[in-house]
Design a protein that fits this description.
This protein has 16 helices and 16 strands. The protein is an alpha+beta fold and 403 residues long. A hairpin with an 8-residue loop joins strand 9 and strand 10. The site of histidyl-adenosine monophosphate (HAM) has 25 residues, from strand 6, strand 10, strand 11 and helix 12.
Length: 403
């Protein structure tokens, strides 16, 4: 089951707030794009392009192949290049939010339609920008009062990556007989994928590490990033196996991991993609970004929150009591309490069961007897104790104890 709409909306709203504070502006990008956009960016050997895209032929004259976007980055780069910003005003900061589609096996935290909140920054090659992206996610984490940890790695650049790639290729060839079918097929085209194979875990562990192959500028970039993260108090571990499932990354890659969403623990991920703008027909402009899995973060939020439960369940027995209950509920809400008035069509026992199940902290019960005395029964659902309170004192009692 997915996360409740309210939790999704909270994550999106807070993420917007963080992005705006970092002077990042919203961009709207299409849900439907040409298939080749993803083939040329996410990568031919990525799981996304190989098996997860919802792609189909348009019935236009050219029978153009289109796809529901599996991620936001390629569409943002395409829009950026099409608007000519890569040449006229390359330094840009965008965020987007909306549905993405991947044909994955659904499970908790993994859906075929899910929402991402992404940020893409163009024209900045410095490590401070990579750090800022992680700081944004960390600010959101704080805002939502969640625990997250970051895993980081560097994959090198056009200068040093070929040496690493060659070392991996040779390592893979030496273990060819032990590789899973996918790795076997992909080895020559993209040996990096060996590192994040979920089947060949042992082989991946013994494989060469990108960090050992970095050239001096990449090494310095990574060192600066780590210093800036330490300065900002962003908790992180270096994970040399973090290559990410997309082909466009250079230098920095990272994932934010939560323990609250089970096996699908990556709630946000991203990295630098310095060659992508050029690969999609633009100028040689660096880029870096991340996407938050809104559903996963919302699930983590749900798992950690208790304030989504009502403070008060109001139980009215009979029509006259219901009128009073509606008035009292209004007063309680005006005082900031979360209140649900339960159906008057049930008996007291059923209503108490329902109040319990709602997770409410308090039940306020108004029957004929209380009605006559201008009172209500205030029941503490956690302690299972109760007392009679004058209706006019209820809000003060509740805000005193619930606040
Ligand atoms: P990604 O790692 O493929 O990266 O996805 C980012 C996040 O989206 C994941 O960490 C996860 O939280 C969420 N996500 C992915 N697939 C699913 C799914 N099937 N169900 C629920 N949530 C999911 C990207 O998409 C890159 N575009 C990120 C990026 C932006 N890199 C640079 N800029």
């Amino acid at each position: 089951m997915g996360a409740p709409a309210r939790a999704l909306a909270t994550v999106e709203e807070r993420a917007r707030g963080v992005a705006e504070r970092h002077n990042v502006s919203e961009i709207r990008i299409p849900v439907l794009e040409r298939l080749e956009l993803f083939q040329h960016s996410s990568g031919e050997t990525s799981d996304i392009v190989e098996k997860q895209m919802y792609a189909f032929g348009d019935s236009d004259e050219a029978a153009t192949m289109v796809a529901l976007r599996p991620e936001g980055t390629p569409g943002v780069v395409r829009a950026y290049v099409e608007a000519g910003l890569d040449r006229s005003d390359p330094e840009q900061r965008f965020y987007y939010v909306g549905p993405m589609f991947r044909r994955e096996r659904p499970q908790k935290g993994r859906f075929r339609q899910f929402s991402q909140f992404g940020v893409e920054i163009f024209g900045r090659a410095d490590a401070a920008t990579d750090a800022e992206l992680m700081i944004m996610i960390d600010e959101l984490r704080r805002d939502l009062d969640l625990e997250l940890n970051f895993e980081i790695n560097s994959l090198g650049d056009a200068e040093c990556r070929p040496r690493f790639r060659q070392a991996l290729l040779e390592y893979g060839r030496a273990h060819l007989a032990e590789l899973c079918k996918d790795c076997h097929q992909r080895l020559e085209r993209n040996p990096l994928r060996l590192l994040d194979c979920k089947i060949d875990v042992k082989i991946a562990e013994g494989a060469p590490r990108s960090l050992d192959y970095l050239c001096d500028p990449c090494r310095a970039h990574f060192a600066t990033l780590r210093e800036l993260l330490a300065d900002a108090g962003v908790p992180n571990n270096v994970n040399p196996r973090l290559v990410r499932g997309l082909d466009y990354y250079t230098r920095t890659t990272f994932e934010a991991v939560s323990r609250a969403v089970g096996a699908q623990s990556a709630v946000a991920a991203g990295g630098r993609y310095d060659g992508l703008v050029e690969a999609l027909g633009g100028a040689a402009v660096p880029g870096t970004g991340f996407a938050i899995g809104v559903d996963r973060l919302a699930l983590a939020l749900e798992a950690s929150r208790s304030d989504v439960r009502p403070d008060v369940a109001l139980l009215a027995i009979g029509e006259a009591a219901m009128r009073v209950a509606m008035r009292l509920a209004g007063e309680m809400r005006a005082a900031g309490l979360r209140v649900e008035v339960l159906s008057p069509d049930r008996g007291l026992k059923a209503l108490l069961r329902r109040a319990d199940r709602s997770g409410a902290r308090w039940a306020v019960i108004i029957g004929d007897a209380e009605l006559g005395r201008g009172a209500a029964v205030l029941r503490d659902l956690e302690a299972s104790s109760q007392s009679e309170v004058a209706q006019r004192d209820l809000v003060a009692r509740l805000t005193g104890v619930a606040g």
